[in-house]
Structure formats: C-alpha cells, structure tokens
UniProtKB/TrEMBL annotation:
<keyword id="KW-0645">Protease</keyword>
<dbReference type="Pfam" id="PF04327">
    <property type="entry name" value="Peptidase_Prp"/>
</dbReference>
<keyword id="KW-0690">Ribosome biogenesis</keyword>
<comment type="similarity">
    <text>Belongs to the Prp family.</text>
</comment>
<dbReference type="InterPro" id="IPR036764">
    <property type="entry name" value="Peptidase_Prp_sf"/>
</dbReference>
<keyword id="KW-0378">Hydrolase</keyword>
<keyword id="KW-0788">Thiol protease</keyword>
<protein>
    <recommendedName>
        <fullName>Ribosomal processing cysteine protease Prp</fullName>
    </recommendedName>
</protein>
<dbReference type="InterPro" id="IPR007422">
    <property type="entry name" value="Peptidase_Prp"/>
</dbReference>
<dbReference type="GO" id="GO:0008233">
    <property type="term" value="F:peptidase activity"/>
</dbReference>
<dbReference type="GO" id="GO:0006508">
    <property type="term" value="P:proteolysis"/>
</dbReference>
Amino acid sequence: MIKITIYQNVKKEYVGFQTEGHAGYAESGEDIVCASVSVLVINTINSIERLTEDSASVQSEEDSGMIKYRFEKTPSREATLLFSAMVLGLKDMAEDEEYSKYIDLRFREV
C-alpha cells in the first residue's frame, strides 16, 4: 500500500507531503497504481521547480518509495494550484473503488 500524507498548516494551506511504500496492485513494472501516483507526485515537484519561484526540500529513497517534500516558506498561488491539482488526482484515486485499497491518503496539520 502507498501511504501518502499531505501536510497543511493551521490555515489549511498545503506545506508539503510524504509518500512511502508500493501499491502492490501488480508486479513491479506492471503496477498502474504505483505508476499513476509516481507521475502525479514527480510531475508536481518538477512543475513547481520549473514554473514557480518557490523553493522546497526534497528527499527520496527509491527502494521504499519514500519522497518527502516541504516548501521552505508559504507557497505562491501558482505552487498552491499545482499542488492542489496533485491532491485532486490522489484523492480521486484513493476514493476509486478499484484502487482505494492500494492508497492510504491522509491529511495532517503541522
């Protein structure tokens, strides 16, 4: 199961996330759930880096599927929009009847 924690501040603004684990939907290389989550997450990180002035810290560990991402300060409107699009995609997957048992999506105030 992929565990995803979305971090929000007291104002409910997104400030980062952490992913960990592998879906286990199918064999490695055939797992569409892992691939979909990876595309959403990595595209969001790359988009924020290339299309905004926001800075963030990123840590990853391929074997465990861990990615930690934290904005260094309050994200811009553009970064928030990109981040919100990622959350929308992850929510849709986590609520889908076929995929919900492979994704644990949580929100945590930090």
